[in-house]
Amino acid sequence: MDPIVLRDLSRTFAMGDTAVHALRGVSLTVARGEFVAIMGTSGSGKSTLMNLLGCLDQPTAGDYVLDGVHVSRLDRRQLADIRNQKIGFVFQGFNLLPRTSALENVELPLLYDRTGRIADPRRQALAALDRVGLGDRIHHEPARLSGGQQQRVAIARALINQPAILLADEPTGNLDTHTSVEVMAVFQELNRQGMTILLVTHEPDIACYARRIIELRDGRIVRDEPVAGPRLADSDLAAWPVSGGGRP
Amino acid sequence: MKWRSLILAALRSIARNKLRSLLTMLGVIIGVGAVIALMALGRGSQADIQAQIAGLGTNLLIIHPTSSQTAGVRAGSGTLNTLEIGDVVILEENATLLQDVSPVIRVQEQVIAGSSNWNTQVNGVSVSYRQIRNHLMESGEFFSERDVKTRNKVAVLGRTVANELFPGQDPVGVQIRIRNVPFTVIGVLQSKGQSSMGQDQDDIILAPWSTVLYRLSDGKTVRTIMASAVSEEQMDEAKAEIRTLLREAHRIPAGGDDGFDIRDQSEINEMLTRITGTLTMLLSAIAGVSLLVGGIGIMNIMLVSVTERTREIGIRMAVGARPGDILLQFLIEAMILSLIGGIIGILAGVGGAQLLGALMGTAVMVSPLVICGSVAFTAAVGIFFGFYPARKASRLNPIDALRYE
Lengths: 248, 405
Ligand SMILES: Nc1ncnc2c1ncn2[C@@H]1O[C@H](COP(=O)(O)OP(=O)(O)OP(=O)(O)O)[C@@H](O)[C@H]1O
Ligand SMILES: [Mg+2]
What we know:
The complex is a heterodimer of chains A (248) and B (405).
Chain A lengths: L3 E12 L2 E13 L4 E6 L5 H8 L7 E6 L2 E2 L5 H10 L1 E4 L11 H10 L9 H11 L15 H14 L4 E5 L7 H16 L3 E5 L3 H4 L4 E6 L2 E7 L6 H6 L10
Parallel strand pairs in A: 3-8, 3-9, 6-7, 7-8
Antiparallel strand pairs in A: 1-2, 1-4, 4-5, 9-10
Chain B lengths: L2 H14 L1 H38 L4 E6 L17 E2 H10 L3 E16 L2 E10 L3 H4 L4 E4 L4 H5 L4 E4 L1 H7 L9 E4 L2 E9 L14 E5 H8 L4 E2 L1 E6 L5 H15 L10 E5 H44 L1 H9 L4 H38 L7 H27 L3 H6 L2
Parallel strand pairs in B: 4-9, 6-8
Antiparallel strand pairs in B: 1-11, 1-12, 2-10, 3-4, 3-7, 3-11, 5-8, 6-9, 7-8
Helix pairs in contact in B: 1-11, 2-9, 2-11, 2-12, 3-8, 9-11, 9-12, 11-12
The structure holds adenosine-5'-triphosphate (ATP) and magnesium ion.
Magnesium ion binds next to helix 1 of chain A.
C-alpha cells in the first residue's frame, strides 16, 4: 500500500472578498521508501502542500489517504497521534519553542508519545543532535543559536520519534553548501533504512540528492520525473575540498 | 504527557513573568490571607470564651421555677411554682446522676465594713457549691457543713467585694454587716473575671444557705438550685432524673406542667455557635468575593497567556500534542498559579493573625483543616477559572496557531 495518495487535492484561502487558490487539484502517489524533492517558485504552493501532508491543515477539496486511512475522517485527537507517530516535520520557519534548550526542543515530540516505543528518550535526543552536528550546543536556547543551527535542531526534532515519513520544508535553506550536503547525507541514510522523505527545496543541487523531482507552479504539478542517477551525499562529502569546509 | 514535565513547564512559564504572576495571584493571596487570619483570630477567641464557660463549672445544671411570676391564671393544684429547700434535700438524697447539689438563695444587699459600703449580691449556698462552680480560694477557707448546720454567720467574699470593702487588705477574720447582720469573713475567692455575658463574676458574697435563708430571706423560697451532673455525657439523663424526682415530690399529675425549668451550658454554647455561625458566614462571603475576583484575575491572565503563546501551542500540536494535552497544560498552569497564591496567602494570613493576636492580646488558633481546605479551594478556583482559557487553547487549529504573529 502506498503511504501517500492524493486525489485532486485543492486548498483555497479566503482573503476577504478574494480567494487565493494555493493548490488547484494536485494528484500524487508516493510509494514507501521514496525520496521526493518538491520544487517550484515562491508562492507556488509547496508549503501549503506540505502542511496538508503533515496533517496540520485540511484540504478544501479532494482526498488525502495516508497509509490507507482517509485523513479527512479523523478527529483532532487521531490527527495529533498521526503527527506524533508517523510524521516528522521540518518547518520552513523552524518553529522551535523559544526559551527552551535545544535538547528539550528535540525531546518535545516524545513528551506526547503514548506508545512508549522510544526507549531512553534522553539518549535518543542526544544522538539526534549529534547526528546534525550540534552535540556541543544541547543547552543553548534558540535565541542563542544561529539560523543554520536552529534549522538543524528542527531536523533533529523531526527525526526523534523515528517517523515513517519525513516532511522537510526547505531544511537546508539557511545552511551553507557543506552543511546542506551533510544533512542530505543524513536523509539519504534514513531513506536507505526505509524512511519515506519529501523535501521542499529551491536549489537544484540539493534536489538531485533525491530520486524523484516534482515541480509545482501556481498550485499545480507541472513536472514529475525520476532523477537520473541521484548524487550520493557521502561520496560528495568524501571528495569535498578541504578549504571549502563550511562547518561553523 | 508526563506529569513531571507538565508541572515543570507550568512553573517555568509562571517564573518567566514573575511580576505579572504575582499581580495575578494578588486577589487569591488577599482572599486566602484574610480568611486564614480572621479564622485564626475567631477560633482563638472562641477558645477563650469556651474556657470561660468551662470556668463556670463543669456539667452545670441550673433549675429555676418558671411560674412564680405569672400570677393568677396558671397555678393549678399540685403545680410547682416555687422551689423549696426540701427539693434540694430530695435531689441530694435520691439523684444518682448528680455529683453535687446546692440551693442558691440570692439577695441583693448593702454590705458595710467599717466606713466602706458596697451593694452586692449575697448568695446562700451549700458547701458543694464550690465544686459546682469551680471556685478556688485565694485566702482563708470556704465554710463547712457545720457552718451550714448551725447557721453560722460567716461569709466568703468575691475579689471585687474584697477590693471595694478592704482595698489593699486581707479581710479574713474581719467583721462585716449585711443588712445589719454581722458576718465574719472567713475567705476570699480567686478571681473568675467577667463571664461570657460581660458580668463581673467576682462581685459576690457566698454564705451558708441556712444563714441567708433564715436571716436575710423569707425562710422558704429557693430561687435557684444548681447541680452538677456526674458526666458531660449524662447531662440529658441527669435532667430527666431531676424532672422525675421533682414532679414526684410535688405530686404533679401526668400531663401537668413542670413549673420549673432546667438549663445547662449547651444553651450558652448554642448562642456561641450562632455567633460563630454568623462570623463564618461573613468569612465565607469575604472568601467568596475575593476568590471570585482572584479567579477572574487568573482567567484574564491565562487568556493573555494563551494568546501570547499561540505559536507555542501550534508547535506542540504539530509534534503531536492532543487537544487534551494542551487543555491539561493550561489547566495545570492556572491551578499552580492559584495554588501558589493560596500558599502565599496562608503564610501571610498566619503571620498577620499572629501579629494581630499579639497586638490585641487574643489567642490565635490556626487549624490544619482550614489550611488544607484553603489549599484545596484555591486549586479548585484555578481549575475552574483556568478551564475556559485552557479549552480555548486546546481548540486552536494547529496551522492557524503556527502562523499566528
Ligand atoms: N493562510 C493563508 N492565507 C492566505 N493565503 C495563503 C495562506 N497560506 C498561503 N497562502 C497563499 O498561498 C500561496 C502558496 O503559498 P505557500 O506558502 O504554499 O508557497 P510556497 O511555495 O511555500 O512559497 P515559498 O517558496 O516562498 O515558501 C501563496 O500565494 C500564499 O500567499
Ligand atoms: Mg514555503
